[in-house]
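Predicting holo structure, fe (ii) ion bound.
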Amino acid sequence: MDRREFTFGITRFFSAYLLLDAASLTRSFSASVHQDMERWARQLEEICSDLKLEYIPQYLWQEKIGELFEAVPLEDLLNFIDFENLRKGFSFPDLGVATRMVKFPAIEGLERTTFVKKIFGLRKDRAIIPHGHSNMVSSHLILDGKFRLRQYDKIAEENASLLITPTLDIQTIAGNHSSISDAHNNIHWFIAESDNAFTFDVIVLDLNEQSYDIHNLDMEKAVKNGNGELRVPVLDVESALKKYGKNHHG
Ligand SMILES: [Fe+2]
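Done. Tokens:
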């Protein structure tokens, strides 16, 4: 063997070794990511089922889901829910938002979840219209795009209006998250500020052994009552979508 052959031989040997090593690393990395995601999904189920059974209060669920959304690497979650496939052929409505149900990979004991899991998708300038909730919680992780997000606390439900106070008005991007509950930040209003924008939502319905309800709000008709509170009329969903589903409000 001359020197050239020898070098080639060694190089080929090391290249093959490195390739093999990289392949086995990738395999073990994927397996460990999958295990991490499985653990994450089980923790998600645990806090949602604890909430449903009233072992934990709603504000604590908001804290805990915030921690889980903070902890999960966005890319791993996107793979876990097969986001690329979900967004393929997504039919964006001209007004408001469309949703698609999310399926987790098969996990033993987690064939059914206490929570509803969906992605929400919007075109630019379309909105998840301003609305409040009763007897439910939800949390929203931005998967792609940008939103303007406004939130409000609900002080009281009146006959045909809600008494609310503003809590948040921010720009959000992929990786940011927010939540609502009866206790805190009950009302939300998202407006998409990128060509497309998506959220991943975890929702627990029918809390307090009562059916959940949604209250669409006519924010333009909000009346200040002098101490920072707003009295806002409730709108039927059709009128609310027509008025707020596509942003004409600047
Ligand atoms: Fe909502």
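Residues 81 and 104 are 6 Å apart (CA to CA).
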